Amino acid sequence: MKFEDWEPIYRKIITDMGYDRARDEQAAKLLSELLFSLEPSRIAPVSILTELVQGKDILVCGNAPSLTDELADVDPSGYCIIAADGAAAHIMDAGLVPHIIVTDLDGAVDSEMEASNRGAVMVVHAHGDNIDTVHAIVPRLYHIIGSTQASPLENVYNFGGFTDGDRCVFLAVEFNAASMTLIGFDFHDTKVTSMKARKLDWARRLIKVAFE
């Protein structure tokens, strides 16, 4: 998705959620500087997403409680697996390594670091609320691609999306997946906080946009 198409949606999200665009932009800039400072061997070229996704059947794994059961009902062998943040831990527990992890690093970071060491591409998202975490964790990862929900930078990309789950979907669309199967998504989970419920509602709405 081009940023000029995403930006009006982004403005609605930050207005609704009460987020500070300047903080998001600051986070993106800091992530960019951090990535430039790392050994090049830790950075993945964006072209690797084309190699992994284009023309492939994609299994997008959200982190709803249903994920473990749904994963057991799927033969993952023919898929490129994209995990949304904490979903990576459940996928690793099933004996699999996600091909791509889309994360703002607020989930099962130990599992994500293990997956990174085992070859998973880490699409790390910086926003106004995770700057300290990005600084602490990113230098310990491999195969990193930076992302933002604000204006993209030279080495920090915006493929569209807000939550980890819907950003997985936007990424798959951006890189021309042949098909997508979504598991581990529950947009009406009644056991989450009111803030999380609002995020889930935005995820639901944004996934509809991504498929339009």
What this model shows, in words?
This protein has a seven-stranded parallel beta sheet, sandwiched between helices. With 212 residues, it is of the alpha/beta class. The model has no long low-confidence stretch (mean pLDDT 97). Helix content is 46%, strand content 14%. The protein has one domain. It is built from nine helices and seven strands, in the order αααβαβαβαβαββαβα.
Task: List the main descriptive attributes of the protein structure presented here.
9 helices; alpha/beta; 7 strands; 7-stranded parallel sheet; 212 residues
User: How many structural domains in the coordinates?
Assistant: 1
Span from first to last CA?
12 Å
* N-to-C order of helices and strands: HHHEHEHEHEHEEHEH
Overall pLDDT confidence = 97
Low-confidence stretches: none
Oligomer: single chain
Apparent shape: globular
Which secondary-structure class do the elements indicate? alpha/beta
